[in-house]
Amino acid sequence: MKRTFAFGLVLTVVVWACSRVPISNRKQLLLVSDAEMNQQALVSYKQFLDTNRVVNSSQSTAMVKNVGKRIAAAATQYFNDIKHPEFLEGYNWEFNLVEDKQVNAWCMPGGKVVVYTGLLPVTQTEAGLATVMGHEISHAIAKHGAERVSQAYVSQGLLVGGQVALGVAMANKSSQAQNIWNTAYAAAAPAAMNIALLRYSRQHESEADHLGLIFMAIAGYDPKEAITFWQRMANASKNSQKPPLLLSTHPSDEQRIEDLRRLVPEAEKFYTAYRSR
Ligand SMILES: [Zn+2]
């Protein structure tokens, strides 16, 4: 009886832990729930907005909010169309423009987005902005943050037959879970900045490019514009002594642009299909 129970528990953990990323269909290990990630992100996001200069009323603010809403609506549309609307449950989209010279933008788990004013001279057009916002929003949709935290659980030896990790992951507010969260996002600096400066793996970057391209296309932006934008970004980096922050966390090189070129035809199909609706 006892053994059956234990076996059932392990099986549950394994089933729960192995998810697939939408669109790329890559298997990923998720040992931490959306609810937990989103709750942590919400605290960090509030802290960040309280300690930075949010630009409340400007044309640029309106553009950031408008482009963000269009991308989020495109993602919602996509998951409705594939009959999995539950995928975005618990996402509460928010888009803010922050006065800061850094060439940067990010999206925390659960859909909390920040764009820095320093990014806008490089994005130049709405489609350029849609490229960056589509990419950042895709990190959140692909649950890359949760995957990183899960990888930290595993690398710290907290996964033993699935069960220990379950205990840790479920203990929402235990100090151990908190420590792992902090480590995953590299401690020291304030929590919000850790998430903002999060370095994703190359695999996560490519995946966010892929998903972002499709969501921007569904939102009505020509995915070919993504290539133009990343070329502009590469030039901005060549012409400045210090590479833009967005590039230190989002390397742009020939390979990336090459990969995007390969992905554009698929995204163009979405662009055409959704435009004719
Ligand atoms: Zn990225």
UniProtKB/TrEMBL annotation:
This protein's GO CC annotations: membrane
GO annotation (BP), single: proteolysis involved in protein catabolic process
Signal sequence coordinates? none
What's a Pfam family this protein contains? Peptidase_M48
Which residues are in the Peptidase M48 domain? 90-262
GO molecular function (one): metal ion binding
Q: Enumerate the UniProt keywords alphabetically.
A: Hydrolase, Metal-binding, Metalloprotease, Protease, Zinc
Q: How is the cofactor bound?
A: Binds 1 zinc ion per subunit.
Top-level taxon in the UniProt lineage: Bacteria
Give the protein's cofactors: Zn(2+)
Q: Which family does it belong to?
A: Belongs to the peptidase M48 family.
Name of the protein this chain belongs to: Peptidase family M48
The species this protein belongs to is Siphonobacter aquaeclarae
Its lineage reads: Bacteria, Pseudomonadati, Bacteroidota, Cytophagia, Cytophagales
